[in-house]
Amino acid sequence: MQGGLCLALDNQISLLRGEQTGYRSLTKVRLAAWMASTKREEAMANINVVNLGGQKVGELELLDDIFATEVNDGLLWEAVKHYRAALRQGTAATKNRSQVSGAGRKLWKQKGTGRARVGSIRTPLWRGGGTVHGPQPRSYEYQFPKKKLMGALRSALVAKISEGKLTVVDSLVVDEGKTKLYRNALNKLEAGKTTLLVETSRKLDEKLYLGSRNLDGVELVLSSEVHPYDLLRYEHAVFSKDAIEALQETLKKFVPKRSKAAGKEVA
Questions:
Q1: Which residues pair with 239 in a beta bridge?
Q2: DSSP for 103-169?
Q3: pLDDT score for 62
Q4: What is the DSSP letter of 101?
Q5: Rounded Cα–Cα distance for residues 25 and 148 (Å)
Q6: One digit per residue, pLDDT tens: the chain, 267 residues?
Q7: What is the dihedral of CA 239, 245, 247, 251, to 10 degrees?
Q8: How large is the C-alpha radius of gyration of the chain?
Q9: Backbone phi, then psi, for 224, in 5-degree steps?
Q10: Interatomic CA distance for residues 97 and 131, integer angstroms
Q11: Which end of the chain is more exposed for a tag (fewer CB within 10 A), N or C?
Q12: Most distant CA pair in the chain: distance in Å?
């Protein structure tokens, strides 16, 4: 009787311990999920919108599926490598034995002279002869998946925002297309030595183009043409509100399914 009673008590204690352990593990999971969702909301909830004078005029809500992600360094490296490969001219060339100057006749007879046999003065073994397996003009460009390119662009934007080097302005248009006006505006925005200006094709103004084209270290690109290499190359990026919204809509189409599923689970 005593042995059976002790065994029953041991079983009840084990069950209670198991329930406590399960409750604790479940609580930890829920707490981790809540902290992750809170951290995402706080980290990438919105960004200030300022005017060209540096004064705050509003806020822009950022999509968590796009901006609440980690920076993928490997993907950025692949995107930059692809971009720089496409820039190569690929004009390096050498002449083979059919292209160098020189007669094609046999210099001396094959046998009886005591010298080494030779068929042409253009042989690669001699100075001034052709080059074997030398470089020829070619294109270094190769295909790069668009989904990977959009992922690299998303990582570049997240890196810029986390470093505090991305500014969103309500408009990039000034009264006159003067270089001095844009220089003063960039100084007020603390844009740094090199700056990337991003505008949409619908809002691209002639004054913006004329006023920014002569600025040293400043480049103007469209939101549909911005590349991760551009964001990494320039110290600061200045987006118009319309440009960042258009870019968000484009990147939303290429959000990985895993990120969408994770966002739903956390919610």
A1: 168, 198
A2: --S-SS-SSSSSSPP-S-TT-TTSTTSPPSS------------HHHHHHHHHHHHHHHHHTT-EEEE
A3: 87
A4: S
A5: 37
A6: 445 545 444 554 454 444 444 434 444 444 444 444 444 444 456 889 998 888 888 888 888 888 888 899 999 999 999 999 999 999 999 999 999 999 889 999 999 999 999 999 999 999 999 999 999 999 999 999 999 999 999 999 999 999 989 999 998 888 888 889 999 999 999 888 899 999 998 888 888 899 889 899 999 999 999 999 999 999 999 999 999 999 999 998 888 766 555 555 545
A7: 140
A8: 32
A9: -80, -10
A10: 7
A11: N
A12: 118
List CB contacts of 41: < 8 A, sequence separation 6 or more: 64
Does this model's pTM top 0.85?
Answer: no
Structure tokens at 168: 């969103």
CB 195 within 8 A of CB 238: yes
The encoded tokens of residue 185 equal: 């505006």
Closest CA to 177 of 212, 143, 133, 221: 212
Residue with structure tokens 């939303």?
252
Q: How open is the CA angle 196-256-157, to the nearest 5 degrees?
A: 15
Alpha helices in the chain (DSSP H): 2-43, 64-67, 73-87, 146-162, 179-188, 206-212, 228-233, 241-252, 257-266
For the four alpha carbons of 8, 10, 14 and 17, in that order, the dihedral sign comes to positive
* Tokens found for residue 152: 């690299």
* Of 92, 120, 122, nearest in space to 106 by CA: 120
Identify whether the C-beta of residue 227 lies closer than 8 Å to the C-beta of residue 205: no
DSSP-derived letter for residue 2 is H
